[in-house]
Amino acid sequence: MECENEIRRELQMLLSGLSCDFCALALKEKDSGALKWTVVVGNLNERCLNMADPPNRGLSGTVAKVGRPMTLQVSELVRSRDLYNYPIMISEKLRSAYAVPLMKNAKAFAILLAGDRKRRVYRPDERSAAIASGERLLNLLSGIPGQMGQANGCL
Predict the structure, then answer these.
(1) 3-state secondary structure of 8
(2) Res 41 pLDDT > 80
(3) Sign of CA dihedral 36, 141, 15, 45
(4) What domains can you pick out in the chain, each with its CATH number?
(5) How far apart are CA 77 and CA 31, in angstroms?
(6) Concatenated DSSP letters of 109-145
(7) pLDDT value at residue 104
């Protein structure tokens, strides 16, 4: 599908631009409120496409709830005993990630995730690049009737 290809291109550009290992877009399902990983690049396996973060847990409980970008480090999640709430980090063997919420009407309906399989501190210019990519994805998704806030439609 054309919109999925455009999303994949945007994720691939971010992956190359940040020299990171993994990029993904999760959309919030309208009925359940779970975040479902819809388009991924740099993935080790296909398991992540079958994963959903339950409402108020993991990324939907932090990034989506707070409504601002966040850095995630596996070492901190292990210390806080919260790693199990981030199955995408485990499945893709990510050590560091930067997550950007895509907002519509002051609510997050999607999450853009860039991650690395090594410990990494994202520089301000890298965080800005991820935010800009999130804005482009928001514009792309906003142009799809019926897409906002649901994981169906053209995807």
Answers:
(1) helix
(2) yes
(3) positive
(4) 2-142 (3.30.450.40)
(5) 28
(6) EEEEEEEESS-----HHHHHHHHHHHHHHHHHHHTST
(7) 87
Structure tokens belonging to residue 117: 């399989």
Phi, psi of 92 (to 5 degrees): -95, 5
Highest mean pLDDT out of 49-58, 75-84, 96-105: 96-105
H or E element at residue 41: strand 35-41
CB 11 within 8 A of CB 39: yes
Euclidean distance between CA atoms 140 and 137, whole angstroms: 5
Q: Which helix (H) or strand (E) holds 11?
A: helix 2-18
**What confidence category does residue 49 fall into, taking pLDDT thresholds of 50, 70 and 90?**
confident
**For residue range 135-150, what is the model confidence (pLDDT) as tens digits?**
999 999 887 544 444 4
d(CA 45, CA 65): 28
* 70 or 146, higher pLDDT: 70
